[in-house]
Amino acid sequence: MFDSPVDLTKAYAVLYPGQIRGNSIKDYKAHGGFLFGSGNSVEVRMPFDGYIYQGARFLQKGVIQYGFDAISECGIMQRFGHLYELSPKVEKLVALLPEPKEMDSRTTVLRPFVFLKKGELIATKTGVPENGGMDWGVMDLRKENEASKDPAFREAHVFQRWYDYHGICWLDYLSEKDQALAKALPGGDGKMGKTSDYCGRVKPVADVGVE
Q1: How many Å separate Cα 48 from the centre of its chain?
Q2: How far apart are CA 189 and CA 196, in angstroms?
Q3: What does the pLDDT look like over 28-78, one tens digit per residue?
Q4: Closest of 79, 78, 203 to residue 145, by C-alpha
Q5: Collapsed DSSP state (helix, strand, coil) of residue 148
Q6: pTM of the predicted model, to two decimals?
Q7: Residue 40 in contact with residue 197, Cβ under 8 Å?
Q8: In whole angstroms, how large is the CA radius of gyration of the chain?
């Protein structure tokens, strides 16, 4: 189990992981996220110990955006996206990233990896000033998820199988308090709502492995 990376009382909706958020399968998102509306001052903190091992820097309508992937020692990966203002520790990684291009969010492996403890500050602002939303996904790299057992799903998602086959419904693994808050919020995608390939499936008997 783990805490939310953000204060959920500040969010007005949750983006569910395992959705097509666009017009085609190429718009599939193994990650979810949070919507905060106008004003983007939101603290993002590390939900559990892990190493930041790759990142991205890009522009969204001319506004700088950052994304980072972190992995725990037991093989649980997190994806943070649409960060705007970084903590001093994470800001040092920016020099290792290519110059930003409009909507080019390809990741770059970082050397050396940077260790962050649970609760450490990652960012203080998210999204863009008029839309403070951010992405957050959790992938269990040790095993494939239930959705990937469907042959049709596997074939459709082979292009990004390293994410789609391993994404989990992170809402089910939040602490009891955060889980109640997250599930009470509306689904943030206007078309998909709370429909998800990951959420609503049978949760494995074994826990995710992060406490």
Answers
A1: 13
A2: 11
A3: 999 999 999 877 799 999 999 999 999 999 999 999 999 999 999 999 999
A4: 203
A5: helix
A6: 0.91
A7: no
A8: 16
Structure tokens at 123: 């960012």
The strand pairing partners of 45, in sequence order, are: 121
Token pair of 79 as six digits:
């994806």
Q: What is the rounded distance in angstroms from the CA atom of residue 64 to the CA atom of residue 77?
A: 24
Question: What are the CA-CA distances from residue 53 to residues 73, 78, 80, 195 (Å)?
Answer: 12, 10, 12, 31
% of the chain with per-residue pLDDT over 70: 95
Q: Locate tokens 């009382």: which residue? A: 9
Domain 8-184: give its CATH code.
2.70.70.10
Q: How far apart are CA 4 and CA 149, in angstroms?
A: 28
What is the spatial distance between Cα 30 and Cα 161, in angstroms, rounded to a whole number? 10
> Angle CA(22)–CA(170)–CA(123) in degrees, nearest 5?
80
Paired tokens of 58: 């890009």
